[in-house]
Amino acid sequence: MHVSLRQLQVFLCVAQCRSFSQTGQTLGLTQSAVSRAMVELEGQLHVRLLDRTTREVLLTDAGQLLAQKAAPLLQELADTLAEVADVGHAARGQVRIASSPTLSAALMPACIAACNRELPQIQLQLVDRLQQEVLAQVRSGDVHFGVVVEPPELGDLDCISLQLDPFVAVLPPAHPLMPKAHKAHKATSLRWDQLRGEPLVLLDHASGSRRLMDAALLASGCGPEHCPVVQEVGHVTTAFRMVEAGIGISIMPGLAIPAHGLSSLQVCDLLPQVQRAIMLVRRRQRSLPAAAQAVWDLVARRLTTAPTP
Question: pLDDT tens digits for 64-86?
Answer without folding.
Answer: 999 999 988 888 888 788 767 66
